[in-house]
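DM between two lab members

TW: hey, do you still have the 3'-phosphate/5'-hydroxy nucleic acid ligase entry open?
JB: yeah, one sec
JB: this one, 409 aa:
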Amino acid sequence: MKNYEEMDIAGASPIKMWTSGVPVEAAAKEQLANTAKMPFIYKHIAVMPDVHLGKGSTIGSVIPTLGAIIPAAVGVDIGCGMMAAKTTLNARDLPDNLGALRSAIEKAIPHGMTPKTRSYRGRDTGAWENPPAPVDTAWAQLKGEFDVICQKTPRLRNTNNYKHLGTLGSGNHFVEVCLDEEGSVWFMLHSGSRGVGNAIGTHFIELAQQDMRTHIANLPDKDLAYLEEGTKHYDDYVEAVGWAQKFARMNREVMMQNLIASVRTVIKKPFDTHVEAVNCHHNYVQKERHFGKDVLITRKGAVSAREGELGIIPGSMGAKSFIVRGKGNPESFNSCSHGAGRTMSRNEAKRRYTLADQAKATEGVECRKDAAVIDEIPMAYKDIDAVMQAQSDLVEVVHTLKQVVCVKG
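TW: and the structure you got?
JB:
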């Protein structure tokens, strides 16, 4: 018995939606329909239960293509994803003062960003002033390929890259200390390719629109402008996006190193990490084989869930998160959701909720509870339990995590 619903649009590829029991906004359905009308969609679009409106294409969708890539579907937070590591620590090993733990993490990992104004002359607090040794080691593995990319696209050379490696960013990015169902301590974090990924994504979105300016009016949405295989911009994008995905993965690894080191300054008991570990993208594109053909799979807010593959599906601040194992469902192109998914915009959340609402919703979690993070309040997201139920044929739950410390930019 199939666990998805189908949406048929005249003149478009089929859309298969794992959204039973989960709200889907009308604007997101319209956006899905627009994407499905593109002539190079392979088989069908797979829609995850956390689906919501995005730029050009919906977040929470899996877009298989032949001979073309839509840069805006990949997005500008290229390689954004999750990393989690189980430790040998138990809940009883955590300090009574969780604020000390949060403070140590905030000192160890640059987070947030300093607004750029003409009067401001200091450094961006979300970047390193003097990057530590793990950043140097990681950058040495990335620099050579980046130099080659910059020879082809010189404007990328002046982006914030080296000093962003091992930093969190802002928005929905976070670092957490969590407990699983047995009281074991996990470290979990969410970030991507930071400033350099944004620059790469923005640049190639612009190039795609320039290449199509003679007929972009015929596109359902200008952000569905695409790069065709065999063209120079396509080849340059594939190279640059692949590098940005490496940067994002390494960014999470460096953050995890610094997270572990910061916890050791507070918890003196020796402990091991990476007892179980996952590092997965949820905004990316790569070539995969599906239904007997090599195709490009763009996961815009979706995680690879091949049979036996571990992934991470986080909730929101104050909600549960899950370590999952993929079931390898071919109809979803071996994919699952990347989180709970927003039910409202950030501005709407700020209008609707108060500081008191935020404090109540995150009770028991050591985290920021100020006006700047109200847009991340749990009520701005879908019910994570409903999201998990809707994709029960895509993944099985291995661990259920509940955060006790949350650091946000």
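TW: got it. The longest strand covers residues 395-408. Residues 349 and 375 are 5 Å apart (CA to CA).
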